[in-house]
Amino acid sequence: MFSIEITSKYWINGPDDDPNDFCLHGDVRAFIGEEVFKCSCTISVMALRLLKTLSEDHIVSDPYDGQQMLPCCGHFIIPNDKLDEVYITGCIYGIDWNVFNEEEKVRIVTKSGKETIVEKAEYEREVRRVVDEIEDYYKQCQPKVIPSEIFESNGYSAFWNEWHRRKNQLKPSQHGI
């Protein structure tokens, strides 16, 4: 009913590890009901947006604000003052769908208007699996070179702070791990 398959992972300059590139890219297939969406996107941003949908609805955005679920890019990261959340914007390209949390179900509505209902526990397991896959990839890479520019450094820190906070909010019984 809902799954994300990451068929490749790479940095913007290619598959070789790049300690100066913060955003992991990849080729993705998203299976939502009977629809399949394929694209190359910024999978690190995708994963954070998926994590957000565990507690917040996601409404298809104006493509010009760069908030797609499968975003082409996420080149501008704006941290909040507490460095525990980020606003990430990119370009107009990507694939988007609505996510509505409804008690024990998650309702996904694609741009074509097709609705898919997924058990909340199943949806959370899939999000957790994708998040873990991407986080494991980062752990296998060289440590990132943190920029000396404070705004960029804060953005990167806030990204991971939000990631871990949202991931740690999942109870073990919810994600089956």
Name the features.
three-stranded antiparallel sheet, 31% strand, 10 strands, globular, disordered C terminus
The largest β sheet comes out as: 3 strands, antiparallel
- Could you tell me the radius of gyration in angstroms? 16 Å
Query: Helices and strands, in N-to-C order?
Result: EEEHEEEEEEEHHH
Segments where pLDDT lies below 50 for 5+ residues?
Answer: 173-177
Please indicate the percent range of residues in DSSP E strands (runs of 2 or more).
Answer: 25-35%
Q: Total domains, how many?
A: 1
- Please estimate the helix content: 25-40%
Quickly count the helices: 4
Q: Give the structural class.
A: alpha+beta
Question: Gap between N and C termini, in Å?
Answer: 20 Å
How many beta strands in the DSSP annotation?
10
| Overall pLDDT metric | 93
Kindly describe this structure.
The protein is α+β, with helices and mostly antiparallel strands and 177 residues long. The protein has one domain (2-132, 142-170). Helices cover 31% and strands 31% of the residues. The chain contains four helices and ten strands; from the N terminus they run βββαβββββββααα. It has helices at residues 43-52, 120-140, 150-168, 172-175; strands spanning 2-10, 25-32, 35-42, 70-71, 76-79, 86-89, 94-95, 97-102, 105-110, 115-119. Strands 1-2-3 form a three-stranded antiparallel beta sheet. The protein has a three-stranded antiparallel beta sheet with strand order 8-9-10. β8 and β9 form a beta hairpin. α1 runs antiparallel to α2. It is globular. Residues 173-177 have low confidence and may be disordered.
